[in-house]
């Protein structure tokens, strides 16, 4: 793709949208917690779009009673469309692919696939938020006789079906497709997608609806209780604004699943840790402070000096980026055993301890 030509082609449409302001992309601000209803809120984070540098300011509030964190005011459907657009596909798709996939390695997929082995031998597995089906492709090594289907809102799931990474690719929202898929699966996985959903409770109910009695739900999400979040602030990658709408403490998720009639059979704060916090912080800082790239949401393309400075400054910072990455990989086994672990996994069975 000729990025300069593509930016010039897309710029008029983006500028027409932005001329109307970004406030219209937000719902009214909530005065209570969407999880427990408490009015005791505090501002946890105020930031901007650090990756694409699209205009707008985003706030994460935290409930002082249940510790749930949520984007407030939350993006509307039009807002989500605006900020998701050109991130995973389109203009920024290739440039940001490495960042979006950071930490999602084959070994992590295999570990996630093994997480259900103590509890079941899956026959049919639905991977929600599957993108291009990288998890099902890897998980077949652990579950060779399992039929893997995928679900995603993006076009990647159709690509996954064409490549054979999934048997069936369902494009759309889980909450919309659940009635059609009711009771078809004995495992549903949701790896780092629940935090993207406007209403996590509705998403959980939909996931349980597509499971058969005794089936298992596997969820991985960022851990908002991670101590690194306090140290790095806006540079902590799992805040991931404006895309992450909810950050759910493990106790809250466990209580919600049990209230829906599930038995939580495993909670793991170690293995799901993704060692990208330091390197990710460096990348976010570079994205924020380097001269901006040519993108259609900016009013005009950068001049020759800025175009020359951006790659030069980036390559000058590469040694720092590599050092941060190396430190994280070396310390990951230790970090996983501490409160600095940045993600957790929950495995829950539909019904009681005996699957009934």
From TrEMBL:
Keywords: Membrane, Methyltransferase, Transferase, Transmembrane, Transmembrane helix. The lineage of its organism: Bacteria, Bacillati, Actinomycetota, Actinomycetes, Kitasatosporales. This is Class I SAM-dependent methyltransferase. InterPro entries: SAM-dependent_MTases_sf (IPR029063). It comes from the Bacteria. Its EC number is 2.1.1.-. Signal peptide: none annotated. It comes from Streptomyces abikoensis. The chain crosses the membrane at residues 312-335. One of its GO terms (molecular function) is methyltransferase activity.
């Amino acid at each position: 793709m000729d990025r300069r030509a593509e930016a010039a082609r897309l710029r008029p449409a983006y500028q027409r949208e932005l001329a109307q302001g970004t406030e219209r992309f937000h719902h009214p601000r909530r005065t209570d917690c969407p999880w427990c209803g408490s009015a005791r809120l505090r501002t946890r984070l105020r930031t901007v779009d650090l990756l694409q540098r699209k205009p707008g300011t985003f706030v994460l509030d935290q409930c002082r009673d249940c510790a749930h964190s949520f984007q407030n005011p939350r993006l509307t459907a039009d807002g989500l469309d605006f900020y998701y657009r050109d991130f995973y596909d389109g203009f920024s798709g290739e440039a940001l692919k490495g960042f979006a996939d950071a930490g999602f390695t084959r070994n992590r997929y295999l570990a996630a696939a093994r997480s259900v082995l103590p509890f079941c031998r899956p026959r049919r597995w639905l991977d929600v938020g599957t993108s291009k089906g990288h998890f099902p492709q890897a998980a077949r090594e652990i579950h060779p006789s399992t039929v893997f289907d995928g679900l995603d809102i993006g076009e990647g799931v159709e690509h996954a079906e064409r490549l054979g990474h999934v048997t069936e690719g369902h494009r759309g929202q889980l909450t919309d497709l659940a009635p059609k898929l009711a009771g078809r699966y004995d495992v549903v996985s949701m790896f780092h997608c629940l935090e993207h959903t406007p209403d996590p409770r509705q998403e959980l109910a939909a996931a349980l609806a597509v499971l058969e009695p005794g089936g298992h739900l596997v969820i991985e999400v960022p851990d908002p209780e991670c101590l690194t979040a306090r140290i790095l602030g806006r540079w902590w990658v799992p805040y991931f604004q404006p895309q992450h709408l909810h950050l759910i403490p493990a106790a809250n998720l466990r209580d919600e699943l049990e209230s829906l009639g599930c038995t939580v059979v495993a909670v793991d704060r170690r293995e799901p840790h993704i060692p990208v916090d330091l390197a990710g912080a460096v990348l976010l800082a570079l994205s924020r402070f380097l001269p901006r790239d040519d993108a259609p949401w900016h009013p005009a393309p950068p001049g020759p000096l800025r175009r020359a400075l951006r790659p030069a400054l980036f390559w000058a910072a590469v040694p720092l980026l590599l050092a941060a990455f190396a430190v994280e990989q070396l310390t990951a086994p230790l970090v996983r055993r501490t409160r600095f672990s940045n993600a957790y996994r929950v495995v829950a069975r539909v019904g009681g301890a005996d699957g009934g």
